[in-house]
């Protein structure tokens, strides 16, 4: 090596062996970074978008080596795919606050400030304190020694110094996605995996943590879960890789893993690091795979991490390939078209043979177009050349250990020395450095650290006003949420009594339709349905080809008549309406209207009525579907003839006829009661759920008590209805006899007409008949009308017609009683008592809930609400401390945005 090369190598080594702790970044902005460190410890860095470094590139582009070179954190590296999930490295120069301290005790900010090392401007006058700088140099020496594997106390100058501060790395598993890559509805807490106190153990532990995330089913089925895959750290030798756990070895290599990639992250939380940074190392971009979906999966992961404005993008660009066509370059342009937050890092320059001058000179020109130095990066080596218009932040070039070097367990310090020797001894790089001394700013890990430092400083300072604004907005949102939460109950017994009173008032309001008529209308529809079902149970008789029912349109009530009319719409429905008059259906006319074969006898009429099409019509129009023929009535009377004198009918036959249609109302009545009771259950559940929405224990207890109350009232109502129906079934009560006789006469007239089927008379014929009736009257035979004379003529079935007419008349009277005997007790016994405030309180008391004693338990706050209140209170405290940190002089910028 020439003398000039030796001098250049010495200069690069002098800067290359240092870590981020002794760069301009740490010297000039320690106060600013202490503020961001405080924000991370308070757990609000994600909300406030604290600047983060993201390293991305193609598979095997040297990304992980860049992480190690930039921050002294060794990660898994190989020629193939070794990063199969994002790895987030959270570095803190000071130890994380103990869990016992908490952030709600008001001590997090003071503890962070107390534990932070003094900065270079910590003197009273704000000037540099040389003694402090010397102490910092000694601390930095200890950190470098730790990274290089040297004994504590060794300095770069060979003298003694202070020992390294405590260093440890907590590795955690962050699962935000399922095994299909779909984001979970809620992010679970990060799961601790292991604690590492030797940097040589990190790579092995990271690979094990990746294996856990990539084999979710195997981990779930393993006793001990993820802990069974932790390397054997307790038996590991210092500076040597620990042995793998047996369960991890059983998974074999990555080609046998359940998932080839996952967006879930391995998190490294490092205390005592060289800098306060967060670095995300992403999986390498792949361009070919047997499963095309994996290519898109990795691309989506990379793009998602490049997009945030507070992420600095470090693009790993392997030498020997066109940097402008690299996938990472294209992805970066989509999210950072101006290049204001992206830096290119040329890796593996030794892959370009030294004799290929053209390719090497191309790299030199790319690195030489470096642009203005970022704030805090310094200006060593002279002024900068003009920046590339598409890459204002320029490029850096680093040489990290090869696979052979890694296999020899090369130290961090030796890796940096080898890097300096490579550039100093390279024919073209050394010559370019002599021509362009400013290239030294862009060559090697030290220059990269300075460049990243300066860019981080710019972004942190630029973000401070926005972080303050976001912090105030988040604080206001949390305060608004806390204000909207119901206050905890102070006097539980009194409040429980008030809530039960409000429950009763709400129930009464619904059952009486005082305000909301929904429940009232719902139960009214149930009463109407009950009436319709009872109508279908009423008797009907087929006399000849005429079907005579108990009710006509007026007897069914306006609602039922309207429903029957609304059910129609087709031609057959209109024809049915035309032939149904006065409660009688002309079956012959209906058959003709429907185009069916002629109906001339009672048997043909019965068969026609039982056809499917006609049965559906009868159902739609609330007409009787079942009936007795006149022949069946004749047979019934004949069967009960006994010792009666001629001209008398056996009363037992009449009783049997009535009994045939009795006992059919119980089913519809109890069904109606069951429906109303179910609606009452729904109503009480809804009212209680609204009133006790924040008190699950009280909601369950009161709901259960009122459920039993509704059941009790329903049983009492059922008992009353059963009694009413039993009286109807067991006895024959005519009610108003005059009304019954009038109905009998009316039904008898319909039946005689149906039986005799008189011819229609013209007006002239009716006038002649009236003259004849007047002549008969002179002989003492008086008829009020032709109809009276017609009905007076005897028939062979007068007794049977009279029995059928009496049956229809009786059930029409009974229907008037039964249609109200079910809804009224339901409303009186069940619904009206449902909203009685005294009975509601008594129901809760009867359920074994002593109101005074049980009130505190019943009105205990919902666990989710209590947890949310605590979370909001803690978050409010963290945001308050964060805002104080952002407005403190430690931020290193003006106090107000």
Automatic annotation (TrEMBL):
The lineage of its organism: Eukaryota, Viridiplantae, Chlorophyta, core chlorophytes, Chlorophyceae. Pfam families: Dynamin_M, Dynamin_N. Residues 800-894 form the GED domain. Residues 125-142 have a biased composition (Acidic residues). One of its GO terms (molecular function) is GTPase activity. This is GED domain-containing protein. The keyword Ubl conjugation does not apply. Residues 109-162 are annotated as: Disordered. SMART domains: DYNc. Keywords: GTP-binding, Nucleotide-binding. It comes from the Eukaryota.
